Every structure is written in C-alpha cells, then in structure tokens.
Amino acid sequence: MSAPSISRYPVPxxxxxxxxxxxxxxxxxxxxxFVPNVFLALAHRPAEFRAFFAYHDALMLRDSGLTKAEREMxxxxxxxxxxxxxxxxxxxxxxxxxxxxxxxxxxxxVNYLKADITPRQRAMLAFALKVSERSGEIVDDDHAALRAxxxxxxxxxxxxxxxxxxxxxxxxxxxxxxxxxxEFYLLGRVPxxxxxx
Amino acid sequence: MSAPSISRYPVPxxxxxxxxxxxxxxxxxxxxxFVPNVFLALAHRPAEFRAFFAYHDALMLRDSGLTKAEREMxxxxxxxxxxxxxxxxxxxxxxxxxxxxxxxxxxxxVNYLKADITPRQRAMLAFALKVSERSGEIVDDDHAALRAxxxxxxxxxxxxxxxxxxxxxxxxxxxxxxxxxxEFYLLGRVPxxxxxx
Amino acid sequence: MSAPSISRYPVPxxxxxxxxxxxxxxxxxxxxxFVPNVFLALAHRPAEFRAFFAYHDALMLRDSGLTKAEREMxxxxxxxxxxxxxxxxxxxxxxxxxxxxxxxxxxxxVNYLKADITPRQRAMLAFALKVSERSGEIVDDDHAALRAxxxxxxxxxxxxxxxxxxxxxxxxxxxxxxxxxxEFYLLGRVPxxxxxx
Amino acid sequence: MSAPSISRYPVPxxxxxxxxxxxxxxxxxxxxxFVPNVFLALAHRPAEFRAFFAYHDALMLRDSGLTKAEREMxxxxxxxxxxxxxxxxxxxxxxxxxxxxxxxxxxxxVNYLKADITPRQRAMLAFALKVSERSGEIVDDDHAALRAxxxxxxxxxxxxxxxxxxxxxxxxxxxxxxxxxxEFYLLGRVPxxxxxx
Amino acid sequence: MSAPSISRYPVPxxxxxxxxxxxxxxxxxxxxxFVPNVFLALAHRPAEFRAFFAYHDALMLRDSGLTKAEREMxxxxxxxxxxxxxxxxxxxxxxxxxxxxxxxxxxxxVNYLKADITPRQRAMLAFALKVSERSGEIVDDDHAALRAxxxxxxxxxxxxxxxxxxxxxxxxxxxxxxxxxxEFYLLGRVPxxxxxx
Amino acid sequence: MSAPSISRYPVPxxxxxxxxxxxxxxxxxxxxxFVPNVFLALAHRPAEFRAFFAYHDALMLRDSGLTKAEREMxxxxxxxxxxxxxxxxxxxxxxxxxxxxxxxxxxxxVNYLKADITPRQRAMLAFALKVSERSGEIVDDDHAALRAxxxxxxxxxxxxxxxxxxxxxxxxxxxxxxxxxxEFYLLGRVPxxxxxx
Lengths: 197, 197, 197, 197, 197, 197
What we know:
The structure is a homohexamer. Chain A is mainly alpha-helical. Chain A contains ten helices and no strands. Helices cover about 65% and strands about 0% of the residues of chain A. In chain A, helix 4 (about 70-80) packs antiparallel against helix 5, helix 4 (about 70-80) crosses helix 6 (about 105-110) and helix 4 (about 70-80) crosses helix 7. At the D-E interface, helix 5, helix 6 and helix 10 of D face helix 5, helix 6 and helix 10 of E.
C-alpha cells in the first residue's frame, strides 16, 4: 500500500524548492530526525511559507514571560478547540518534550480544566481559548485577570497572539487536510527524546 | 478632549521604528492619505509586523483567480463573523473602493446571502465562512463544490488562506482593542476615492 | 438593468393602498425625501402594516428615559445579532442622524463593546442583546443591574420591548428578503442630513 | 399565602384602563371564563397593548391556508425554542382545544419531529423554527420547499410572521416574568372545553 | 386506525420475555394501572433492560437528601434540554404526582427559572443542567455552590448522576423514537391520582 | 509529593468493598496489570457500580455487527465531543490495542473526519455523534443512511446505545473529576501490549 497523502495539495520535492525554504526544512530535519509534514505541505507556496514560519518563530522563539512549554500548552488547547488533528498531535509531542511530562499534552488538548497545571496556567489557557472562540467579547477585565496572575502586558500579547496565530494554522491544516507524521504520536511519551516543530 | 486610544498597547512613534517598518508605513500613508491604525499598532512588535504584512501581501497581492474585490469580500464577511470592528470598517472601505460599489461591503459583512453578488461569489463566501467557523468539518465535497463553480485548487487555497489569515487578524484586533481610523467609515461611499490598506 | 426587487412578495402601488396606509407612506416620504422600503413591502398586508407601525411608534416615539439615539442603538445592535441587513443599514442611518455621530452605528452593529458609548449605554445594549438572544435566562438580577445604572423600570421595559419588537422586525425582513434603500448607506455619514425611518 | 405575582411590572386594575382596553379584556373573559394574564400584564401600557393585539388578531384570525390549530402549533413550537413558559402553556391549551387532541401541544412544544402531525405540518414547523432561530439564513429554497408541500406564498408569510410575532411575544413574557394562569395547564386535556386566548 | 408504534424497534410480547423482565413489567403495571412504554421498548434487549432499571432504581429509590419530587424535577429539566418527549411527558406526570402540584412539571421542563420552586431547588437544577449540557466545565466551585445551599457531597453525586443517567435515557428514547403513553399527559393534573414509573 | 487524587469523592479500599465488586476489580487488574481508576472511583457506590458495569458489558461484550475496535471508536469520538479526559485517554488506549493501530485513537478523538477509517466507520461515527450532540433531531433518514452502509437495525441500536451510555459515563467522569491512570497514555502506542478496561 502506498503512503497516505499528507495534503490535499501537491507536495513539492525538496530539490524544486527555493534555497531558503529548503534550508529551513533541512534544518528542522537535522534537529528532529524527520521533516514535520507542515513544512512540506506549506512549501507548496514559498512566499506564504516564509511569512508563516517568520511569524511562528517571532512568537515561539522570542524571549517571553511564558516558558516554551507554556506556549505549546496554548497551541495544544487551541488545536483541541479547533478540531485540528495536526496541531493536536504535532504540538502535543513538542509540549511533552518541553514539559518533560508525558500526560500534559492530552490533558490540555482534551480539557485543560483537568490538566496537571498551575492556576496561573489555567488562567492563561482560559484567555487563550477566549481569544480563539469569542475574541469579540474580550474586555479590559480579561486583561486585568491575567495581570492578577502576574502576567505582564507583553505576556498577554504573547498568549493572545499565539492563540490567534494557531487559529490561522489550524484552519490551514484543516483546509489542506494536513496529516501528522506518525512519529509525533509517540514522541515524548517515554524519556530521552528531543523536540521537533 | 484627547483623541481616543487606538490600541490597548503602546503605539510607537514613527521615528523610533526600524527603517523597513517605517518605510512600509510611509508607503501606505502616501498611497492612502493617512496611516491605517493597524500599521501603527502592530509596529509595537516589529518582527511580528514584518511577518504579518508579508503574509498579508502574499495573499492579497498575488496573481489569483480571485479579483481584489473578491478577496476583500472574504475579509469583510469573516470580520462580521468574528465581530471584528476594525476589519469590518477598514476592509469594508477597501472593498467599496475596489468594487466601485458603495453597498456591497455592508451587505457582505452583515449577511452575504442578501448581497448583490454572483452565485459563484456566494459559494466563495460560504466556504470562507466554513473555514472561519467550522474548519474541522471541511471535507473533499466542500472543495468539489467550489470547483463546480469554476474555482481552481489554487483559488480554493486563496479563499481558505485569506479566511484563515483574517481569523488571526481579527483576533489580534480584538485582543489589542484596535480602533478603526475615522476615515474608513466614509471611504468609498461616494465616487472618486482611492484605496487604502 | 432593472432595479433589484425590494421584497420576495409583491409590492403594492401607492394608489392601490388604503387611505391611511398611503397617508403614512406619504408622510415619511415628505420627511425623509424617499420612502423606506419597509413601508412599501409591509403594505402588502395593510392590517399588519397598521399594527406594526402602531407598535413601532408606541415604542420609538414615546416619552422615555432613553434618548432617540439610544433607542436606535438598541435597534442596530439587535439587527447585527440577527443578521438583518435592512435594519442594520436603515436604522444605522437613523442612529447616525440622531446621534450626530457618523461612526457609532457601525460600532454598535458590529461589536458594541468597541463602541464610543457610555458604560450605561453598554449595560443597556448588553441587556437588549440578552433579550434578543437568551430571553429565557433573564432573571431579577438583570433588572437590578440596569437599575444600578440609573434606568427606571419603565426604561427597562423600553429596552426590552424595543429589542423584542425588532426581533420580530428582523425576522420579517429576513423572511421577505427586504432590501435596504440605497439612500440609507450614506445617510448621516456627513454633516447636515435629516432622519428617515 | 398571597397569589404569586403575574408580572415583574404593576398590573393595572380593570377600572383604571381605557375603555377599549377594558372592553377587549372583558370580551376574552366572557369567552374563556377567565382573563389570560397576558391581557392584564400588557395593559400596563395601553398603546402597546392595542398594537400587540391588533397584530395578533391580524395574524391569528385572518382567512388563511393554515387552520387555527396549525397556527397554534407554530406558536407552541416557537415558545419551546424560546423557553417561554407562558406561551408554551397558554397556547398549548388553545392548540389542544382547536385540534381537539390532548397530546399534540406537548409533542409540538418539546420536539415537533415526534409529534402526531402530517409531513406538511412538519415542514411548516421546520420553517417556523428557522424563522425563529436562524432567519438570516432563509433563502429562496426554503420558500420553494414549502411550496412543494402545497403552501401558497401567503401561507408562507403567515407561517413566518406568526413565528416572528411570537418571537416578540416570548421575549416580552420573559422580560416581564409573565405567569401563565393555572387554568391553562389543564384546559383541553379532557373533552368538552372551550378556547381562551 | 391502528395504534401508533411506540418504538422504531420490535416490541416483544410479554409472554416471550425472560421471567424477571416480565415480573418487573407486571409489577409496574400493577402499581400504575398501565405499562409505561419504556418498559416494553427496552425489553427488546433484556440484558440492557436489567442494567437500565437497576441503575434507575439505584438512583431514584435510594435514601437521599433529595426528595423524590426533586429527583423528578431533575429528570424533567434534563428532558427539556435534550428535547426528549418521552421523559418530558412521562416524568412530568410522575413529578406532578410526587409534588402533588399540577403546574411544576411544565414549569421545570420549559424554563426552571420560571418555576414555583425554592432557591435551593433552582441551584440544584442549574447544576443538573450544567452536567447535561457542559459537564466538561464543571469545577470545584460548582460543587461549593451547592454545598452553600446545604447539599451534601452525596446529594451532589445524586444530582449529577440522575442528570447523567437521563442523558443516556433521553438519547435512547430519541434513538428508538419512544412514544409516551397517552395516560401520562393527563396524570397528576387533577387530584387523587397515583404515580407510575 | 503525594499521588494526585483520582476522584472528588472518597475512594474505597478494596477490602471494604462487597465481594462481587472486589472480584470484578481483581479480575480487571489481573487482565490489565493495573486497576483502571473508573473501577475504584465508582465503587464508592456499589449498587450504581454494578448497574454501570452490567450495562457496559451488555453493550461492549455482546455479539454485534460492530467489532470491538469499532465500539471503542464510538467511545473515543464521544469522549472528545464531551471533553471527557478519562474516556478519551483510557478508551483511546483500549482502541489502540484492539485496532492494533497506534494513531487511530487520537485521530478519532480529535476529528474523526481526518481518521484512517472506512467510509462505513465514518457514517457510524457521524451517527454516534448525532446521538451524543443532537439526539432530538434523529429521524428515520438517519437510520436509513446507516442501513445503506450495511448496518442492521441491531447494529444501529448498538451504535446509538454505546454513544448514549458513554454520554452518561463522560458526565460522571466530569462530575467526580475522574483521573486517568498514567498507564493509559502510553498503552498501545508500541507493539505487544494488552487491553485494559
């Protein structure tokens, strides 16, 4: 049986890609040991690929009051809300690796109120989900509630923008039928593994 | 009375911005006659500003089977669904200018089923709104329905990605409380005006 | 090209209408400079026309603790919630004229939480929308919350009944496919104009 | 124990009411054997009372392709959707009386898909509920579906307008906390009773 | 005319049933004067029948801080939320009988906020409906709110489990199209009647 | 650090339990290698425990046109819809083991439209989710659609009843805050493991 398709759209060959796009893909392959499908599928359109990952990196790699694990918690909770299999599975793996905790990703993705996280993190996810589901109802009091948990205004921007960015990402994954790599399902569930995007 | 704030976050002064960000802002000011607030408010974070507008331009300026007016229809319909005042008003203006039609923006933003548009455009907006509201339920039949209206696979990506990108944009606007410029409300409602972002 | 239809139902000619219905229509034409389409479309059934406008006038013209602009705010917010293009556009125009403010109608119709209105007006609209969307959940505390903003019991009745009446009106407009007059889109957006129903 | 209040608002005494309002109330009392509370509660505002019942009568008493029982089916189904106890109970009673069938009101109010009604009546109620719940989504095909069941355009107006009118009525009942008369609960459940409003 | 079917599935004859199932059915017939249709319809599968009624009895007959009428209030409120005609009608009858009050069942089933019940009972129904509609959002504070009304932890389990059990029951009734016995509609509406399942 | 609590309610000690309840628990421990928390938490009330597992076994162990893996697919899809962490994780493990496929559980739980399953299984899950989410809207056509995929009437009962039973189960898990055993998260993700309840 042939491998299942990873996208409703044509997936470019590495050698046909612009140099910078190919370099980025090889870099993640080097780090993760495989190429996450989102890189291959979005490379179908290099200009959007560049903007997408520039935005991603600006949010996920910047210095922030949020740890990398906390940022991935947001991603996984939002993926659950948006029924996005790719981000649930792929970022679930990354979250497990960053948090060095094999249960938290499923907990946060299915029901963050049941997760082994701190009250501060629960407030963070409540806000992230409000940004995802009912952003029109955000009022000053929502910002104030996060500040009461010690988040700075810049942290709040981070929480909101990560949620917003993955609302874009989840919709693209659902639009193109993006398939998670099999590797992600198991990653981080047993000790000694390393992150992939 | 002082002018109302355009964002919950600090708005940088032009002279404090990186050269490329300032250049982009001056360019839009030149073209539109004023600086749309989204440029000033997002310049608070230059890295995200660059990625945001790179993504925007990749989608909105590319050669496409969709006219520029059709792309703006998607933006306005999605803004209505997301209760995003900024995009409803600002992109409503741009849509009026591109379509050279003063009623279509309000029609599409409030209820596209009542708009003076073609059946093909109605199918386009139905799909864009499904991407915005229920992207997890998108199936092959949804793509097929658009192809039956003459849309190519690349057009469908455009429709879906524009919807997805403005789902991000709407959430950011709601997060920071982005205020539309007063100019947008009237733009394109009477003859002889020109577009702004 | 012929003019687009204003209703899914036959629109009577003025000369075929009962005297009182025709008189009412001529009166509004005199005042507004044109006949709002709702008058022509509902005249298809004179008995309901009379009751509809009697109810409308009882609510919108009575002495009230609500200004006329505030009453129109309710109408526009409810129209937005009910996806009613006619009332959004027509009453948006009336609101702009009464409020002598060109932005408030779009603000209130798209997202009242972003509007340039007072906290008292925000509480008024929150209640009006609860009457529209979830009236079965109204409890004494909702009334108390409005009284805390200085609304009397009669003001609360006004808020609720205007919301309820336009829930009827919005549904009729959607039922018959009522088309807003082109005039409404621009009315009140620049100084020195006068109201129409 | 004193009788429970029938409204959050003052209920006028019959002798304090304008002659025509009082006459209307006495007429219904004569016919039904008691005064339905909606008459007393809405008499708090005579001008609105007159418009409300004029509208009601225009819809419910006119010659129509819908039987009186069918019109009451619409009222009861819409009351169920709007969580309106008064109309569910009071119009349930009227429906039982008109239909000479003691189960149909509860069936239609709780779940019309389980009711002992004809396919034509099910189509009627599906449309009435769409007018109540999602009127912005009504398209020409919805009208066509009813015509396929033999409904005329005027019948469709009746169905839609009755639904819309009771959306107003349900919201007013919920606003003022209107209490159903105890009499309604039993009316029409055993043979030989007569209707009340 | 033949009697309408009580289920989409075959209804077994009493004589074909296992002894214990038949005995249970005869027992309820003896007590109620008729056999509620749920017994006949579920007897189609004796093993599930036994488990269903064992669960039912464990919850509804146990010693509890909730009266039998209160337990039936939960059932009727949940049936209303789940659009389950059978439980609305059948348990409405049982509630009327237990409460010796002919209005409370319709009140609780249509809108418990309008019912003649105590604040404690309103809190009980609010929780039962949260278990039915949004159980994933239950947090410790919900339990605390009930304890503030004097409910013990075991009472809270009862409230939640009765709601959960009838979520199963409502879905089964809707799955098989279970028809309420005509007797239930009138039961308990006039004095001197006795309960049935 | 002490182990996190598995329930909001007291968890009985094995030695304090009735013989049959203890025997059932020891049996599952023997088979699975550990005691799934649902057994311990529900043993708080032996009578309900017995009925719950009798119902469970009647559905999940009976001869059926559905494979055991298919039945678990229903459980996992419904758990996702009900935000039930326990059933998502525990039955996800069981599904992986039965299906001998490490990805299908996450696929079905997050978005069954993206799962590697057959069209027949997709129809099965669509129906199961309708039973869970909108059972009041089930009509004969829904049954017919399943028969068109080769399901018998008894298979349809199985699908619906499994969905309904786990709607009960999910609500109980959410009510008591039932915590999944850590073992479940990894089970079935790599070859050579065996099922647990």
